[in-house]
């Protein structure tokens, strides 16, 4: 096989349709073996797009999540966290990762989150109420998709929601590919803020996720001060941004498929399946599943050498026809929910049950309370987050 047969594609790739993955993913998936793509840094990394290869890679302990490893496939040099930042769970490897994850996992189980359901419902209702009382059209991102998950994660981890404008500004700067200087400054600002907040909780523990961890210093896996700040940072960012993007994109997609929306409204018992299908269809958080090989690994018909970077392109895997029949069709009746939108293996999303809870309540309530909800602008006029860390839509003007 020569380079002339299979050209080296660049990554990230642009979507040509807001609802479809970049066409290069299918091209890569159809090649007989995995191949390398060129990153903006100029480095090469393996692109893994087939469902079975992605799952094999993400379950394999020979791949490391350590972004500071010289071979890690960072997209931009400034993404490598400065030594003073703690990368928390997402950048750790076993066995430290396993111990650290165990220390916090109990906070995010299905059983634990069940208790949160009434409060999430209340938060969603309040925001829908405010939309109904306000002017039309309204930007659903600002009025609903952003504030609902932000309020939920703030209350859960014990961060004052009163400072929401500050968090929203920081997360938008960190996530939406700003200049390296701006991104770095935003990270320092939020770290300083959380450093003080965690300090307060250590002195006077509060009844929330960070407060409860701060009350258990020295226990196995319980993060020390710096790592607790890193964990608060990650939970706040990951816990808000991703559900916010999928709430906005999911609303858009359902409005664009009125027959499926009608089926959902007629039978809300279908919502959990619809949420899984939305997660599969968009797969908004893909950069998180990048790794570096620590040993030679045979995968997808090639050998990834120790020290080489590899990208598990879960967006491609979730459209793999070998795993999903009619993969490019959005179908809330699809029975197969074994998608990898939350990743796979040891780092699989810690907040997935929380995300599901929020998304199910958000869609059920929004469409039940605002039956006439519709787009106020054509899809062609919307701006999508094509260059951001997580995919999404910047504004979603709706009316009813
Ligand atoms: C629809 C919403 C969400 C999507 C699509 C999503 C996606 C992902 C993905 C793909 C990973 C895997 C990273 C890897 O393999 O290294 C991940 C990890 C993680 N997510 Fe989420 N996520 C979502 C919501 C949330 C929420 C609400 C929280 C808040 C608690 C959260 C917290 C985390 C954490 C802490 C990790 C790191 C886990 C680890 O490294 O052990 N996520 N997420």
Automatic annotation (TrEMBL):
Its EC number is 1.14.-.-. GO terms for molecular function: oxidoreductase activity. Keywords: Heme, Iron, Metal-binding, Monooxygenase, Oxidoreductase. The keyword Iron applies. CDD domains: CYP105-like (cd11030). Belongs to the cytochrome P450 family. This is Cytochrome P450. It comes from Streptosporangium jomthongense. The lineage of its organism: Bacteria, Bacillati, Actinomycetota, Actinomycetes, Streptosporangiales.
């Amino acid at each position: 096989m020569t380079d002339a047969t299979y050209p080296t594609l660049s990554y990230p790739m642009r979507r040509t349709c807001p609802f479809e993955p970049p066409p290069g993913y299918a091209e890569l998936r159809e090649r007989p073996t995995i191949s390398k793509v060129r990153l903006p840094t100029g480095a090469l990394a393996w692109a893994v797009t087939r469902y079975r290869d992605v799952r094999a890679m993400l379950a394999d302990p020979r791949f490391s999540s350590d972004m500071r490893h010289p071979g890690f496939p960072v997209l931009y040099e400034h993404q490598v966290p400065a030594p003073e930042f703690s990368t928390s769970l997402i950048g750790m490897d076993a066995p430290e990762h396993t111990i650290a994850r165990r220390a916090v996992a109990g906070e995010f189980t299905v059983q634990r989150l069940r208790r949160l359901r009434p409060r999430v419902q209340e938060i969603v209702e309040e925001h829908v109420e405010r939309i109904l009382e306000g002017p039309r059209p309204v930007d659903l991102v600002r009025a609903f998709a952003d504030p609902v998950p932000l309020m939920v994660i703030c209350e859960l981890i014990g961060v004052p929601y009163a400072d929401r404008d500050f968090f929203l500004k920081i997360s938008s700067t960190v996530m939406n590919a700003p200049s390296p200087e701006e991104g770095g400054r935003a990270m320092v600002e939020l770290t300083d803020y959380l450093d003080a907040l965690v300090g307060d909780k250590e002195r006077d523990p509060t009844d929330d996720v960070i407060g409860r961890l701060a009350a258990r210093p020295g226990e196995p896996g319980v993060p020390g001060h710096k790592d607790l700040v890193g964990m608060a940072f990650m939970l706040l960012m990951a816990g808000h941004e991703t559900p916010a993007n999928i709430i906005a994109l999911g609303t858009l997609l359902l409005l664009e498929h009125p027959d499926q929306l009608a089926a959902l409204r007629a039978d809300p018992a279908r919502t959990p399946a619809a949420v899984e299908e939305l997660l599969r269809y968009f797969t908004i958080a893909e950069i998180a599943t990048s790794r570096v090989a620590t040993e030679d690994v045979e995968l997808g018909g090639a050998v990834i050498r120790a020290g080489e970077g590899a990208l598990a392109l879960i967006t491609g895997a979730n459209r793999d026809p070998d795993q999903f029949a009619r993969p490019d069709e959005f179908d809330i009746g699809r029975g197969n929910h074994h998608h990898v939108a939350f990743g796979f293996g040891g780092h699989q999303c810690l907040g997935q049950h929380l995300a599901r809870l929020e998304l199910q309540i958000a869609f059920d309530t929004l469409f039940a309370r605002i039956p006439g909800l519709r787009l106020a602008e054509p899809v062609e006029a919307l701006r999508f987050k094509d260059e951001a860390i997580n995919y999404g839509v910047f504004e979603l003007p709706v009316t009813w």
